[in-house]
Specification:
Among the domains are: about 130 residues, no CATH class; about 110 residues, Immunoglobulin-like, CATH 2.60.40. It has 5 helices and 40 strands. By secondary structure, it is mainly beta. The two termini are about 55 Å apart. The strands form 11 sheets. It has a 5-stranded antiparallel beta sheet with strand order 3-29-28-27-26, with no helix packed on it. Strands 12, 13, 14, 15 and 16 form a 5-stranded mixed beta sheet that branches. The N terminus and C terminus are likely disordered. The structure holds 2-acetamido-2-deoxy-beta-D-glucopyranose (3 copies). One 2-acetamido-2-deoxy-beta-D-glucopyranose binds next to strand 35.
């Protein structure tokens, strides 16, 4: 008892000291640290179905592996609309930053995701970063390298176009240019020009490149003044392109933050067809915008074009309006003069400014999903502007470049993960605790739990339960070795089966509170659970069984009720064990045994001990770097 209290005390202290409440952690995937969301819904009924796609990062430059560096923290994540984790891809790339993570459109009619893996921290510039497309199994379908002389895969955009054959990315180039545009024809300066590339997603070959040199004069920039002293390399970041999209006619729309302008660029000859905003707008417009992000074509016909973008109305140095907003603009391009009018405006719900980054997405049901970037702040709005939901990371230390919402089907190629441990103080009262998860799987409704007497033995179903959260816990009577689980969808279809896992046992049973002389031997599951056997691998069998079972139900109703009671108690116990688990979460170390006094009564009452196999470090060191990020923003590869 004293030992127990001492351990508990130690645990509490540790938990407080390491406070990593803003992260989720899991028994089945202890390495993953997924951020929690704080979420508020105002009208859940009107919210569009779909999953959230975010890619939290701590610092925008590739993170130097230091003491603060922790694996599996930053990277791509999918959550459901309750903030429940669906997929953590953070362990794929050793904490490399991921940008523009989203579901890719219409490739072979199946779900895909796409994102930019940022260039490496130190690889002598060899690893320039990559545009990735993964299939619904989370296997790489396309890894698009930088094949031309550009120094890196620019972080702003990886816009996989419909069908997936080509993708758009932003490009930045350092050039030594004459300053005639500024009325100084005898002088030269380094200037960072900007444009875009359309790349073949299979080979990475650049099919089309456009650059601002010769099209956007230097004096169009709001960041360069006539008298500025010529710059050394890399040079003045005078356009700062940050988004590009393509329409059915084959023309491109390009957003340049530092000219406050959106350009339509001919796919035929590269000329600028029109400019919206900035110093040389071709439109008569009833609104202003600045420092915009994420321009997209929404729809168009021969006379009108609707576009969307995030008007962050500010940057780190200046601010134009007091609130950032998502704008939907209708351009009447056959009128003379051409006109632009606001047809949708969605202000940032907290009234604040998004100084860097952000995204706007029109959802299939007409709702608007906006990523305000910092701290993963995001909101969903009804078409008429009502705020339906707002959410942000519980952690203040991370942001996401963009946030999206998509329908998605995930069928991971890796099997479900299962962990199991046996607990008990005497041979007759042993229980096996399962934890199960399946990283990336959507549509799992229930879990079936199996055990067999040995590796080659016949699998016996020892229980089933509804999937709750990313990781589901289940407690079964007996010491069950050689266990496995099955993921089942709402129609009863088996989506996946885990590998066979051997149940973890205490290294020393007696120290763990076991009263017997010798260590217990595993139960034969068919003796414990024989009557309930259902092997879903064989559907016919299962159906026959079901009929039998139905008959059984009539015969021994009472028995089943007792069993149900026992399972309810087991679930209650599971909850108290889960709480205890939370308590010891912060403890590092090898094997930790904790006695948990269970007072729920009934069959499983008594003493249970707790056993911890893996080390679970706390992730608390990465400081908020937003200030740093803002300073860094001017660099061409960033912001
Ligand atoms: C084009 O779209 C605009 C705006 O939705 C609409 O008013 C106009 O009638 C459409 N024109 C054609 C030719 O469909
Ligand atoms: C568990 O399995 C039984 C028998 O197949 C079924 O009737 C029940 O609905 C299942 N429960 C859950 C939570 O899946
Ligand atoms: C509407 C508005 O005030 N827009 C301003 C946004 O900020 C830029 C400078 O950052 C101004 O030039 C715009 O007038």
């Amino acid at each position: 008892m004293i030992l127990f209290l001492a351990l508990l005390l130690f645990c509490f202290r540790s938990a407080v000291a390491d406070s990593d409440d803003d992260f989720m952690s899991f028994v089945t995937l202890p390495q993953i640290r997924a951020l929690k969301f704080n979420i508020a819904y105002y009208d859940r009924d009107l919210v569009s179905p779909g999953y959230w796609f975010v890619a939290p990062y701590g610092v925008i430059d590739p993170e130097v592996p230091t003491k603060q560096w922790k694996p599996c923290q930053v990277g791509p994540y999918i959550y459901d609309a309750d903030g429940t984790l669906i997929w953590a891809g953070s362990c794929l790339f050793d904490n490399r930053n991921i940008f523009d993570f989203k579901a890719a459109p219409n490739i072979d009619g199946q779900s895909h995701v796409s994102f930019i893996l940022q260039h490496a921290y130190n690889d002598n510039g060899n690893d320039k970063g990559t545009g990735y497309v993964l299939d619904q199994h989370f296997d790489t379908e396309m890894a698009v390298p930088v094949t031309n002389d550009l120094s890196a895969f620019n972080m702003h955009e990886f816009n996989v176009l419909d069908g997936g054959k080509t993708a758009l990315a932003c490009s930045y180039r350092n050039k030594y240019l004459n300053l005639e545009d500024l009325g100084r024809p005898d002088e030269y300066s380094w200037v960072v020009t900007g444009g875009f590339v359309e790349i073949d997603t299979t080979t990475g070959e650049v099919l089309h490149e456009w650059d601002s040199e010769g099209y956007i004069p230097i004096d169009e920039s709001v960041k360069v003044s006539e008298w500025m002293t010529p710059s050394s390399e890399p040079g003045w970041d005078y356009v700062h392109v940050n988004a590009v999209d393509k329409n059915a006619a084959g023309d491109y729309i390009l957003s340049a933050r530092f000219t406050n302008t959106i350009y339509l660029i001919s796919g035929q000859d590269g000329r600028i067809i029109w400019r919206l905003g900035g110093k040389k707008s071709d439109f008569v417009q009833d609104f202003t915008f600045s420092k915009q992000h994420h321009v997209r074509f929404v729809e168009s016909n021969s006379t009108h074009t609707t576009i969307s973008f995030l008007n962050n109305a500010s940057d780190e140095a200046e601010q134009g309006e007091s609130t950032s907003s998502a704008l939907f603009i209708q351009l009447h391009t056959s009128a003379s003069p051409m006109t632009a009018k606001v047809i949708g405006r969605y202000d940032r719900p907290d009234g604040d400014l998004t100084r860097l980054r952000g995204s706007v997405q029109k959802l299939p049901n007409g709702n608007v999903f906006v990523g305000w970037s910092q701290r993963g702040y995001q909101s969903e709005h009804s078409p008429d502007g009502k705020v339906l939901m707002q959410a942000s990371f519980a952690s203040t230390r991370f942001s996401t470049y963009r946030s999206y919402k998509f329908d998605f089907t995930g069928r991971p190629s890796s099997p479900p993960d299962v962990a199991s441990s046996v607990y008990g103080t005497d041979g007759s009262g042993l229980t096996t605790v399962f934890h199960v998860s399946w990283n990336g799987a959507t549509d799992v409704a229930t879990w079936n739990f199996y055990a067999r007497p040995n590796r080659d033995g016949f699998p016996v179903r020892v229980g089933n339960t509804t999937k709750v959260d990313f990781e589901t816990m289940y407690i079964a009577d007996g010491y069950l070795d050689w266990v496995s689980v099955e993921a089942v969808d709402k129609d009863g279809t088996v989506l996946g089966t885990s590998e066979i896992h051997r149940t973890d046992t205490p290294r020393n049973w007696q120290l763990a509170g076991f009263q017997g002389e010798v260590k217990p031997t595993p139960n034969d599951p068919s003796l414990l659970y024989g009557e309930k056997t259902i092997v879903d691998e064989d559907i016919e069998d299962a159906e026959e069984e079901k009929e039998e079972e139905d008959d059984d139900d009539d015969d021994d109703d009472d028995d089943d009720d007792d069993d149900d009671e026992a399972y309810i108690q087991a679930q209650e116990l599971a909850e108290s064990v889960a709480k205890a688990w939370d308590v010891i979460r912060g403890v590092g170390g090898l094997l930790i045994f904790v006695l948990v006094i269970c007072s729920t009564g009934g069959l499983l009452a008594g003493m249970y001990w707790f056993y911890r196999r893996r080390r679970m470090p706390a992730y608390h060191e990465v400081a908020s770097e937003e200030g740093h990020v803002e300073v860094e923003e001017e660099s061409p590869l960033r912001g």
